[in-house]
UniProtKB/TrEMBL annotation:
Enzyme class: transferase
Classification of source organism: Bacteria, Pseudomonadati, Bacteroidota, Cytophagia, Cytophagales
GO molecular function: 2-C-methyl-D-erythritol 4-phosphate cytidylyltransferase activity
Catalytic activity: 2-C-methyl-D-erythritol 4-phosphate + CTP + H(+) = 4-CDP-2-C-methyl-D-erythritol + diphosphate
Function comment: Catalyzes the formation of 4-diphosphocytidyl-2-C-methyl-D-erythritol from CTP and 2-C-methyl-D-erythritol 4-phosphate (MEP).
Site (Transition state stabilizer): 15, 22
Species in which this protein is naturally found: Belliella filtrata
UniProt family annotation: Belongs to the IspD/TarI cytidylyltransferase family. IspD subfamily.
Gene3D superfamilies in the cross-refs: Spore Coat Polysaccharide Biosynthesis Protein SpsA, Chain A
EC assignment: 2.7.7.60
Entry keywords, A to Z: Isoprene biosynthesis, Nucleotidyltransferase, Transferase
Name of the protein: 2-C-methyl-D-erythritol 4-phosphate cytidylyltransferase
InterPro entries in UniProt: IspD (IPR001228), IspD/TarI (IPR034683), IspD/TarI_cytidylyltransf_bact (IPR050088), Nucleotide-diphossugar_trans (IPR029044)
């Protein structure tokens, strides 16, 4: 079955506060995005990779590829103003509706190959596969009056990427006008009335968001 992967990296990394967007920061002397693209290329050698970055960064990316001798084939697509719009641009760049597409944050370079493989297998039979992990800490809900209440953590999951779908269904789902409740691709998919299928993610697959995440990334790479 035809397998695509859209790696979204069209953001500006405000919370990281680094001199350049976090997707280009170096981990072990290689930009974050190269680690992420390599994970997909190694896990699924036949995958068709689409990389979504801001159009203004196309020249920077091509310089980085040359400098780091990065040769994994991929198709560059211009990002949008929001993650939703970047994903939609990526979906529009795929011709036809055949096969599966994994949508993955470019700033999650620590995804396991087994999670990527499982996401395609499950999406092929179920329509979708969304990587999640269970919570280890207790959970409380904040109330308007300054109080808080206990929540049963077994009913909650933290949502990661990849979020993998049958291409025809996720293309149709993304035809909708963007809503503020669309925090990821699963929320767009289920807006159609379709149930998402959850699969186990890997705990190291964090989204590099704030500076302390880079320390954890360095630790993971040093093991
Ligand atoms: N317009 C956007 C915004 C975000 N993303 C991507 O979506 C992923 C998750 O977003 P987030 O971690 O929020 O990245 P940023 O938007 O870059 O970070 P911040 O919110 O701190 O500015 C990232 O890979 C990011 O590059 C995107 O492709 N296009
Ligand atoms: C898609 C995502 O990474 C799943 O956890 C997350 O929803 C992105 O959120 P952000 O607010 O764009 O960082």
């Amino acid at each position: 079955m035809l397998k695509h992967a859209i790696i979204v990296a069209g953001g500006s990394g405000t919370r990281m506060g680094a001199p350049m967007p976090k997707q280009y920061l170096l981990l072990n002397d290689q930009p974050v995005l190269m680690h992420t693209l390599r994970k997909f290329a190694h896990a699924e050698p036949e995958v068709k990779l689409i990389l979504v970055i801001p159009e203004n960064d196309f020249d920077l990316w091509s310089e980085l590829c040359e400098k780091h001798n990065f040769q994994i084939p991929h198709h560059l697509v211009a990002g949008g103003k929001s993650r939703f719009q970047s994903v939609r641009n990526g979906l529009k760049a795929i011709e036809g509706e055949e096969g599966l597409v994994a949508i993955h944050d470019g700033v999650r370079p620590f995804v396991n190959a087994s999670v990527i493989n499982e996401s395609y297998t499950v999406a092929a039979s179920q329509g979708s596969a969304v990587a999640v992990i269970a919570l280890k800490d207790s959970v409380r809900k904040l109330l308007d009056d300054g109080k808080s209440v206990y929540q049963e953590r077994q009913y909650f999951r933290l949502v990661q990427t990849p979020q993998t779908f049958q291409l025809a269904k996720i293309k149709k789902a993304f035809e909708i006008t963007e809503l503020h409740t669309f925090t990821d691709d699963a929320t767009v998919y289920e807006h159609q009335g379709w149930q998402v299928t959850l699969i186990a993610g890997n705990p190291e697959n964090i989204k590099l968001t704030t500076p302390e995440d880079l320390d954890y990334a360095a630790f993971l790479l040093s093991r």
